[in-house]
């Protein structure tokens, strides 16, 4: 299909039943200009969509308020409107609204929609645990009580001396002996009560339920996917999808002591999986999961210039910046690119879809050759798998040695009896 007429449609929900819609097609009666720029990345940073609408009357501009739901769709019609390619750009709540600007020739309302929610302020997850423990007399409480009583007697003794500066040596000695005897008597009575309580509890074997709040922890060999799902659920993070490149097992278990998003970021890094913000949720997914598009980009289908090699990228494989006529793409999409610089199937790592007045609607993305991306990822995962196998072998060896040591100790004890 030849891309001729650019189309945009924006709808804002005023209430659950009432909406307001603006359509742009650069011809009557749809001449209200809508500009937008949507960014996206695989670096674990929320994408953002900035939208500007020109020449709305004030009552219509006031519909676009922070917190209201907005849906933007965009795409193309052919020359005679018999075919079209229209995709959803964003469907989420308005994050911020810029105060409207007005001039004699134009008025503009601008607002932003940020993908996902901000979870950075969430505290580390602690869960309530109950444990049945045997009641025993506490030596620690006994020592604490004796120490507190001694401190009180010492304070009283010093106070008496301060209040009787002319007391004789005999009187001071008598007072010191008085307080010393009180401390001894208290300690004797306290220890006696402690011993009685200890004997009683040992004979009756009483139990109590002890409650505490502890960091969320996971047993040995728990999978990464299990950890991130549990952490997200307990902390209220919207995790729409978990499809890890490498669902590694934590040989020694895992304790989530950090903030929830830090935990999810660490697990995602361990699993070589990108964190992607899409609309109001977070996705941990393989970038190439069923995202191969029937899209072929070359100079006949909208390529605007030769791809630009990215010399300063951190990847170990070549990356390219590609600019072509507007398509509603996202992180992980795979399409076919044909140019002088690079040809083949490529995967989108980041980019933007944009329409600005005075410029052609365009998409600009950073890509890698799909085959090189998969090869790089496979090598990284295989390296981690090998390291995990080595760690597991060491842990198993240590566990067997400890078990053998216990069996030997038990055998010696039986012989000695």
From TrEMBL:
Compositionally biased spans, kind Basic residues: 403-417
Bias kind Basic and acidic residues: ranges: 388-402
Chain intervals for the UniProt region annotation (Disordered): 381-417
The protein, known as: Uncharacterized protein
Organism expressing this protein natively: Levilactobacillus brevis ATCC 14869 = DSM 20054
Higher taxonomy: Bacteria, Bacillati, Bacillota, Bacilli, Lactobacillales
